Amino acid sequence: MNEALAVKYGVNVPRYTSYPTAPHFSRAVSEGVYRNWLAALRPEQPLSLYFHIPYCREMCWFCGCHTKATRRYAPVGDYLDILLREIDLVSAAVPGPMRAAHAHWGGGSPSMLSAEDWLRMVAHVRSRFVFDEESELAVEIDPRTASTDYIAALGESGVTRVSIGVQDFREEVQRAINRIQPYAMTAKAVEEVRAAGIKSVNLDLMYGLPHQTVDSVLEQVDLAHGLAPDRIALFGYAHVPWMKTHQRLIDEAALPGLGERFEQSQAAAMRLRALGYVAIGFDHFARREDSLAQALVEGTLQRNFQGYTSDDADVLIGFGASAIGQLPKGYVQNEPAIGRYMEEVKEGRLPVVRGAVLSSEDRVRRDIINELMCHMEANIAPVSSPDTVEMLAPLVEDGLVVRQGTFIRITEKGRPFVRIVASLFDGYLHNGEEVRHSKAV
Question: What's this model's pTM, rounded to 2 decimal places?
């Protein structure tokens, strides 16, 4: 039955880290619009900051991020110099020094930076924004490039949480995705992170990769649990070779079928819950004492471009090539091409190339989608219609959704299909434009 549901609902839909989603951004949002939005912020508004480092030592074939492989440090150092200049441009555009409640470094891989450059960057950010004891600093690291000195620098700079990419510990899978990272390497990184005084550790796992089986995925979950992470993200591999051409290097014959992939995800989710982790949304798991689990209980859980988060700041400013920001009036995205991004900043311009201005209907649909994605329930009254009831009917019949008037709740059986439910309230998804997304399960 579960496999039949996976096939029935295994369609391509967005991951809903924003609404409208990025494929529907347009050039209607320019640098001038962005500057006006920044100037209109209230000085007391807390900010969430995201810094994109678009470099890796080598390309992992499963990767869906905006990144570039390089074994030379010069491009990374040059990029950092420009990133610091963008930080200056933005800090000059906002109404005075503003508090940063949350800062997140992602990529690519921020661990491509040297320890010295990491400390230089964080010092620069702290000089432009206000941080306090409650501010969270989170960074993604790759154990293959994160040196002992670099990890020590993370602790020295006040990092509070580290996310470590794993995907799968087995060599057969690692070779199939071009990411050789032995278990001992990851364990060493976790040990060094904790020795540096960083208390929160996240591990990222994947299902749906080449050569994975239900049993092998369960083995990876157990190995990850043995490292005592505070959070585990269990991502489904998104095979989108039409968008990420390097994914064509993956042997599609070695990929699990849709039913097998679904069984992997459900078996892993059950194992994680049995090990004491709380299910957060459809792909995150956290210890009960973790801030993510607490946010779920308190009803403050949010979802943004970094996934599920306890960060409740309503302003997210993105720095770096391809970075996306969210402001009260809409979304902005920086130039994705690294060279053009750097040229724009050198000329003293905020490197915005597109975005979305939120309409009143967008805000209503965004709130409904966010409630569904985070809390598995929502009052759909503002958009309810006979068509909505008709679209929900198959999901109600299959036991994935319970409907009481204009209130809907996604059942535990329906949790893996939350993106399908959310997509019913997406006013852009079926507007005639051809946009391809990843599989929903």
Answer: 0.95
